[in-house]
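FAQ: What does a multi-protein file look like?

Like this. Sequence, then tokens, then the next protein.
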Amino acid sequence: MIHSSEVTGTPNLPSNSSDKTYNRSGRRGKHKIFIGMAPGVGKTFRMLEEAHQIKREGIDVVIGLLETHGRRETAEKAEGLERVPRQQILRGGMTLTEMDTDAILTRVPQLVLVDELAHTNVPGSLREKRYQDVEVILAAGIDVYSTVNIQHLESLNDLVARITGVVVRERIPDRLLDEADEVIVIDVTPETLEERLMEGKIYAPEKIQQSLENFFQRRNLIALRELALREVADFVEDDANSNTSSGQFCNIHERVLVCVSTYPNGMQLLRRGSRIANYMNAKLYAVFVNHPERFLNKQESLHIETCEKLCKEFGGEFVRFTSSNISQAIAEVAEKYHITQIVLGETQRSRWQLLMKGSLIQQLMRELKHIDLHIIATEKIQS
């Protein structure tokens, strides 16, 4: 699985690409998704560009479903590519059209282009959602290029509604991106998108002002752009880490780990760690390591529970670990959660203890070569 923000070439198609009847038995089609922050960023246009390129290389490409929305440049870019006729469906005295999945399966191309992956099919269709049609096509061994906007991801639905005030009704499960062979983010600046809108390249003139005042507000576009870039970065990181065998991890996102103990500065450390996490747009974690031979008294137990509650209030994850080796335990947690920043208080050991055993900070510096340590001095922490 490859996820990136750049076009990385043609799909992995069989060598006899000129033969429309090659054997696909046992082969699942490859899925490439073009994703963007909003309508008009150029997902469909880029998909068509790539289709023309691989057609020139001898790949059998057809358009399964294309929505131009009246955009002249998109319509012109589709010229020269074969289209599979749409299925006509009678509904309420009207004739509606949908992608003809059966016709595509009969045509047996090597690659089919499918626009607007999150589309809901006309009631009465064999499948409710267009992405379900795509899964049928993939199962038949046919490769698919598809397009979707970030706001259509199921897990982001509530967040998008809070950002834009718009509840997106057409959604796709996140697993589609997880299962995709390649995810391409089509990125433009909010300023460029606004220019395209004003020039009438996205919607008809009568819809421009309404769009600028609603979904296409600058703050919405900035937030949606960040979501799109972050989502693909997540998949790049997950894919890289799932395929590594060297023990080294690809950390695109920052992750902050706060080390708390039974000392009373735990909550102050958590507040500092939360601020650092917010600055870095990072996920927050906290860890408490308890010695297996040491039992917490009532006051200590209450303190740790309070720290856990505060961590969760900050949106973080609290980890309890039992070990006689504190530095090793922290190192294990850091490796498991791909931590990039660690926050801990200055040592509470006496000089004699430091001479005999060394400090936790020194031990962590030896064990964690690629993680930044933030040492918070006790005298600077206000209760």
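And here is the next protein:
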Amino acid sequence: MEQSKQYLINPFKIDVDPMERLLLINFEKDPDTIYVAFEPQVFDDTPHGKGHLIIGWRQDGKVDIFHQPSLKLNPEDYDIVGKGLANIVERDFTDGL
């Protein structure tokens, strides 16, 4: 009797970002006119460089990314967040490091 082969299909792809620190500041109950939350992140690794990044979670479900010039970011990595990427803006953060 011949045995049938069974296959497992994995529909998930998991990536791990080597992030130093992350904080989620959520103010949905008292929202700003544009944002409902901010997510500051700190990177210090080879793929991204060293610096700070802030994700601004918008009322419309999209995100804005503000980052220091020292970071190397791929906008496509952030277009999958929420309803997608609205803006990616390079900024100097005073006393950021």
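Q: Is there any per-entry metadata?
A: Some entries carry free-text notes. For the entry above: Residues 19-90 form one domain.
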